[in-house]
Amino acid sequence: MTDVVGYCPACGSQTLFLGDGGHVTCSRLDCPRPTAADELLADDETHHVVQLGPKTFTVRHPLHERLDDALMTCGVHERIAGMDGPPAASGRYRVRVDGELWNWERMPEVTS
């Protein structure tokens, strides 16, 4: 068992280790989600994901925006909120932002 430097995103403990197959796992018995770090590392999305409804929206920011507090200065939420209406039909979109140019790519709906 090889220790991994860092904190478990589910319980905040420094109890991560490299498990079978290279999966990062938390060894704390009362951790609510020991596979959280591994699940986050497996997410290959690097753009914003926006769920649009008829009158509401949510934004899932890419993980790299946590670095250097970039999430705190991200203007995606503010820009969408400032629009006169939804920028596209209701649904789930990958939004690529390049300056003033926005690319809205329809994504499959998530079913759980």
Describe this structure in words.
This protein has 112 residues and is α+β, with helices and mostly antiparallel strands. It has helices at 36-42, 76-81; strands at 2-3, 16-18, 24-26, 48-52, 57-60, 91-98, 101-107. It folds into 2 domains: 2-42, no CATH class; 48-107, no CATH class. It contains 2 helices and 7 strands; from the N terminus they run E-E-E-H-E-E-H-E-E. Strand 4 (48-52) and strand 5 form a beta hairpin. The radius of gyration is 17 Å and the shape is elongated.
Please give the count of helices: 2
* Domain module count: 2
According to DSSP, the number of beta strands is 7
What is the topology, as strand order, of the major beta sheet? 5-4-6-7
Separation of the first and last Cα atoms: 33 Å
Pattern of helices and strands: EEEHEEHEE
What is the mean predicted local confidence, pLDDT? 93
Task: Please summarize what this structure is.
This protein folds into two domains: 2-42, no CATH class; 48-107, no CATH class. The protein has two helices and seven strands; from the N terminus they run βββαββαββ.
List the helices and strands and how they pair.
Elements: E1 2-3, E2 16-18, E3 24-26, H1 36-42, E4 48-52, E5 57-60, H2 76-81, E6 91-98, E7 101-107
Antiparallel strand pairs: 1-2, 2-3, 4-5, 4-6, 6-7
Provide the descriptors you would attach to this structure in a database record:
single chain; 112 residues; alpha+beta; four-stranded antiparallel beta sheet; three-stranded antiparallel beta sheet; 12% helix; elongated
